[in-house]
């Protein structure tokens, strides 16, 4: 939480027009075929999360891209997942048939036995086969927690196949604000705007063949609220499905069909991106921006986003902090 000594942006006139956070927006990427590398990378493992953020009590799914582009078979390959605190191992499956991978589970880690790993992943070599690991996030893990998952790949021949490591950070919560910005010009007329970009949690999948994860559906209607946590409301608008126009099939982008019709309610822009269900970082993306309005002088210091659709709700909070001669939003779920 922010110290009570942090004051309103209107008490810092020189900084009010540049009130912004510098967090990176996580863009959902469509799942491509594993590339065949012209330049071999050797004995290598790369870890990525397939759903971010993930709700407490839900499953977090990770993809392990495993490669041996050397010309010899790597003997006795074992992948160790150093389980993040607050998670437990569910299962691991491997392409192309998504069969279960033998696993030995310990209190703080799980060891996956892959056996001998043939050459793969380079020109004139077969494709490599990824491993997907599913973990369950304990219901008691607090929203805003960052899960740091680390994996280690070893061989019984460490001289020719040295140990390789990879890690990834995943947000816990129903939503994760990636960018939050409030612009407060110095003029007394009050032409303030709020802009927020966030990812909304969807359930993890243990293979591309698993059922599609739950998600919001803009065509069923959507409610968006921007406010101080349990305080002043800057925007509260409920839109019917007819307010949106969507493009795409497996991956879809939905925008306001007539933005001008909603400006009187304080809404300038509302975009929703629904990535393919087997995409990396499989959260629905949302961008919302208010019209130029007038916020109270003591608005903040925290900013909460609430989204409701089809009986589901997503929420998160960005925190205002002072630094470098200006005020900026710094989100607690950003990568360390």
Polypeptide structure, described:
This protein is an all-beta fold and 336 residues long. It has two domains: 9-28 and 173-330, no CATH class; 43-171, Sandwich (Immunoglobulin-like), CATH 2.60.40. The chain has strands at residues 43-49, 59-68, 74-82, 87-94, 99-100, 103-105, 110-117, 131-137, 146-154, 164-171, 175-183, 193-200, 222-227, 233-239, 244-247, 252-256, 267-274, 284-290, 302-309, 312-323, 326-330. A hairpin with a 4-residue loop joins strand 6 (103-105) and strand 7. It is elongated.
Short summary of the structure?
The protein is mainly beta. The chain is built from no helices and 21 strands.
Extended strand count: 21
What is the count of distinct domains? 2
Structural class assignment: mainly beta
Shape descriptor: elongated
Bin the strand percentage.
35-45%
Characterize the biggest β-sheet: 6 strands, antiparallel
Q: How many helices does DSSP assign?
A: 0
Rg, rounded, reads 23 Å
Q: Which percent range fits the helix content?
A: under 10%
**Runs with pLDDT <50, length 5+?**
1-40, 322-328
Strand order of the largest sheet: 11-12-18-17-16-15
Distance between the termini: 17 Å
Order of helices and strands: EEEEEEEEEEEEEEEEEEEEE
Mean pLDDT across all residues, rounded?
82
């Amino acid at each position: 939480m922010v110290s009570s000594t942090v004051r309103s942006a209107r008490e810092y006139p020189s900084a009010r027009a540049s009130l912004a956070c510098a967090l990176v927006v996580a863009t959902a990427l469509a799942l491509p075929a594993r590339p065949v590398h012209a330049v071999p990378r050797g004995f290598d493992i790369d870890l990525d999360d397939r759903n971010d953020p993930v709700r407490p009590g839900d499953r977090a799914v990770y993809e392990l891209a495993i490669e041996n582009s050397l010309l010899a078979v790597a003997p006795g390959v074992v992948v160790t997942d150093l389980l993040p605190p607050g998670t437990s191992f569910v299962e691991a499956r491997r392409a192309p048939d998504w069969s279960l991978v033998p696993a030995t589970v310990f209190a703080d880690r799980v060891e996956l036995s892959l056996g001998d790993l043939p050459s793969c992943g380079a020109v004139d070599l077969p494709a490599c086969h990824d491993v997907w690991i599913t973990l369950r996030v304990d219901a008691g893990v607090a929203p805003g927690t960052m899960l740091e998952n680390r994996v280690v790949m070893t061989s019984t021949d460490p001289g020719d196949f040295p140990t390789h490591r990879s890690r990834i950070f995943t947000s816990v919560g129903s939503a994760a604000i990636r960018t939050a910005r409030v612009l407060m010009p110095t003029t007394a007329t009050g032409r303030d705007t709020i802009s927020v970009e966030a990812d909304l949690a969807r359930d993890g999948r243990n293979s591309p063949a698993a059922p599609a994860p739950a998600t919001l559906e803009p065509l069923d209607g959507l409610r968006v609220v921007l406010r101080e946590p349990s305080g002043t409301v800057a925007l509260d608008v409920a839109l019917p499905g007819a307010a949106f126009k969507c493009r795409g099939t497996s991956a879809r982008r939905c925008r306001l069909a007539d933005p001008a019709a909603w400006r009187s309610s304080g809404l300038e822009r509302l975009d929703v991106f629904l990535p393919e269900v087997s995409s990396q970082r499989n959260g629905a993306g949302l961008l919302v921006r208010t019209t130029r309005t007038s916020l109270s002088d003591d608005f903040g210091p925290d900013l909460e986003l609430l989204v409701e659709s089809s009986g589901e709700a997503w929420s998160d909070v960005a925190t205002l902090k002072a630094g470098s001669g200006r005020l900026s939003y710094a989100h607690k779920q950003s990568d360390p």
